[in-house]
């Protein structure tokens, strides 16, 4: 006789039990997690961009990024001819980066906890804006001083194909479709995995049109580079 319990039904399928999809031992997609906060988050993005506008930065190799970026929080990620680093001051405005909107912080802490990283205390948030054709080549997030904290990545607007690889650039990648409201969290043994975004198709979103906003919350650390 077969007895079906919920445990038998779900087996070790993490998705069925918790609504989160595992893409690594300590990496999860939380589908629609940000949807209830979307309006507050978009207001936060507008407030940040009013003070520190989106801009396309140069890489040390002299390439102009197709993604436009800004930051909020104590530390902001920047790149120019001299390299990648975190700064306290926005080089464009000459002022400190805008405060982290409270909705960003609350969402990030809840998402991190849901992915097994309680007590996340981000001090940096990189906000990326994608247009059709924008892409982000495979990279590791490794300018932070504290790899003990996860990365929390929130997607709004147009859908994207997120690439999630391994610890070597040449490792195989999986393509993860990310929709408005999806949140990805990676940390622990997965903290330094390569990731990127495929060239964006023009699939306009009802609220954001031909734009995708992604913001990633990080713990850059107290001594995260020159001021
Ligand atoms: C990033 O790696 O900074 C952004 C990832 C994304 O846009 O989904
Ligand atoms: Fe990244």
Automatic annotation (TrEMBL):
This is Alkylated DNA repair protein (DNA oxidative demethylase). The keyword RNA-binding does not apply. Keywords: Dioxygenase, Iron, Metal-binding, Oxidoreductase. PANTHER family: ALKYLATED DNA REPAIR PROTEIN ALKB-RELATED, NUCLEIC ACID DIOXYGENASE ALKBH1. It comes from the Bacteria. Its cofactor is Fe(2+). Residues 121-221 form the Fe2OG dioxygenase domain. PROSITE patterns: FE2OG_OXY. The keyword Iron applies. InterPro entries: Alkb, AlkB-like, AlkB-like_sf, Oxoglu/Fe-dep_dioxygenase_dom.
């Amino acid at each position: 006789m077969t007895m079906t319990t919920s445990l038998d039904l779900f087996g070790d399928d993490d998705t069925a039990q918790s609504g989160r999809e595992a893409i690594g031992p300590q990496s999860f997609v939380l589908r629609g997690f940000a949807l209830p906060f979307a309006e507050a988050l978009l207001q936060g993005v507008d407030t940040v961009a009013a003070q520190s506008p989106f801009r396309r930065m140069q890489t040390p190799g002299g390439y102009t990024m197709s993604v436009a970026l800004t930051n909020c929080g104590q530390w902001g990620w920047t790149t120019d001819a001299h390299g990648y680093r975190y700064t306290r001051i926005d080089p464009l405005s000459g002022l400190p980066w805008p405060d982290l909107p409270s909705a960003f912080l609350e969402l990030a802490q809840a998402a991190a906890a849901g992915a097994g990283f309680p007590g996340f205390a981000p001090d940096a948030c990189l906000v990326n804006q994608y247009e059709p054709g924008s892409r982000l080549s495979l990279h590791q997030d490794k300018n932070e001083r504290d790899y003990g904290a996860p990365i929390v990545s929130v997607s709004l607007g147009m859908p994207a194909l997120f690439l999630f690889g391994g610890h070597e650039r040449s490792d195989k990648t999986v393509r993860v479709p990310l929709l408005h409201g999806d949140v990805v969290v990676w940390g622990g043994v997965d903290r330094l995995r390569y990731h990127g975004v495929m060239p964006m198709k023009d699939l306009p979103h009802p609220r954001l049109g031909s734009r995708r906003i992604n913001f990633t919350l990080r713990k850059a650390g107290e001594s995260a580079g020159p001021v």
